[in-house]
Amino acid sequence: MTLKPFLEVKNLNVAFPTEDGLVQASNEISFTVARGETLAVVGESGSGKSVTSLAVMGLHDRKRTQISGQAILNLDSGPVDVISADDEVVRKLRGKAMSMIFQDPMSALHPYYSIGNQLIEAWSLYNEGDKAAGKKRAIEMLDLVGIPDAAKRVDEFPHQFSGGMRQRVMIAMALINNPSLLIADEPTTALDVTVQSQILQLIRDMQKEFNMALILITHDLGVVAEVADRVNVMYAGKIVESGGAEDIYYRPDHPYTIGLLHSIPKIGELESKRLVAIPGQPPSLINLPRGCSFRARCAFSDRVSGNLCATTAPTLDTKTNEHFSRCHLPEAELLKARKEIGGN
Amino acid sequence: MLKYLARRLSATFLVITLVSMSVFGIFAVLPMDPAALTCGKACSAPVIEANRHRLGLDVPVQVQYGRFVKGLFVGRDFGEGAAAFHCPAPAFGYSFNRHECVTTLIAEAFPVTLSLAIGAFVLWLSVGVSLGILAARRKNQWQDRAATAFVLVGTSLPTFISGILILLFVALKFNLINPIEMGRWVSPLEDPVAWFRTFIFPWIVLALLYAATYTRFTRSNVIETSMEDYIRTARAKGLNERDILRKHTLRAALAPIITLAGLDFAGLLGGAIITEGIFNLPGLGRLSIRAVLRDYDLPTILATTILAAVFVVVANLLVDILYAYIDPRVRVAS
After folding, report:
1. Which of A124, A234, B10, B60 has the most Cβ atoms closer than 10 angstroms to its Cβ?
2. B127 falls within a domain
3. What ipTM was estimated for this complex?
């Protein structure tokens, strides 16, 4: 018997109407995450990483968003599509079935309420019991996420905590009701480098502890290599490549992924070189060009026969079960490209 | 917290001392002779000098200030012999034009101004804040536009226009105010209905002006706060929208209003000159303006000025203490 993945996103589209036109923030997004699995979502700013996960959480601005597709949570009580479900139904899944932590822990906690107060509030939404019981649970959680002297610090306020400690508090708050899915939206981006790895380690430990499905949104490929089972590479609102972490690192199929990997500086390189960048800018999400969105920046589009890249948007190539990409480049050319750019 | 309180209290005391000194100093150098004003045109130099002595104005200004301060604590005697009279503590001086101790004048006027300020305060705060919240929640819908129109009218109509309009076209036209009894002071303890009828229109006039400002301020604060990351966090927890607004958004959005409200209220306690004038209310504003424009009554002006300053300084202190109670970041910084 194969377990159903906890979250199944199917053909999700999110768009915002603006004065300048419809912003296609995420397009044809499909992926799954199972309990215990870590899915990393990488891509540059504006590629649709956060929009997708906010839509899954139902935290997008419903009045201003056009949304279609499905995001199915396979709960013990049966599947629920959070996109079509009632607001109130989705609200009751937030914090309980699925939780989210955010990029900037400095501003994500309410400055006027004590840490304990905010944790107890989250706890009491889904638990019967008085404040004392909630506080006991809050201290337990703070202890678990590595806040020293939790019993004392529970009464302190956010401004008395450092950035790393606040992110620990956020994690404690997100996990206080044992969610099955945790979405971490760039959880380490705003933190000091030394703290980053601690928080990442903590998230991994917590994932094991709670057997959660984890979606880790990041633009740090180092983070991805460390923790991810699977990786979705996003570009201009679409998943351009999806695969196991090893596949993505050692056998990238999409020129964008190849470019991204190549732009990471390598420690220990003997001669000092300028960092390699992918030329150009990502396209505007309003009126996306016909054909492949990455075409203008792609080093290999001239190797595709005909004018295919300009006329036809590549579909997710699903020949193999585990590793897909949206690219017209033929296999032979791809192998050459990998060699030319990446050197592996 | 105690240390903070002690420090703030002593600072407040210092400010009040400095304010009273500078007001005193200003009046000492004014090109106006209070002694000469005590008698009419037929005054002779000896009478003026005698009055100067009776008023205690024949000694250097620092001695006068010393007597003034002493008078505040133990009361003060003016004149000698058969013409002597006593103002009990706290004595602010003696008004020759009104033949009263200034403290008595203030004690008569203050309840009027206090009634005016409290009623208007309650009215503008409740209307302004709730309208602001409504406008923020229904941003860009008709409720928001209506609130914006109200703000525009409220802020652009000066009280001497809105006051007269309301007096003429509402209060008098529909016989809601008796023009003969208008402005007669009635204690709310004796006759609450008459008290209410005396003050309801002045309240509306003042509240119209202030409520507009508060609507705008509340609206922008609520909108700004609802875009904060911690509001998204509250939503991610699974809180419902009502609790998010009540517990999270408003808590942060309304805190700055305390500062604004405290200072506005204190400013009003010093006297609402125009509104009191239009509605014939015998409050501190009328007392000051009469002392300034008609009587050149320096002791009274001195007293009302110092009093107004004291209100503002004390309100500042209270607001800061209250704020420290509300915002934990202030608490620790202190």
Report:
1. A234
2. yes
3. 0.89
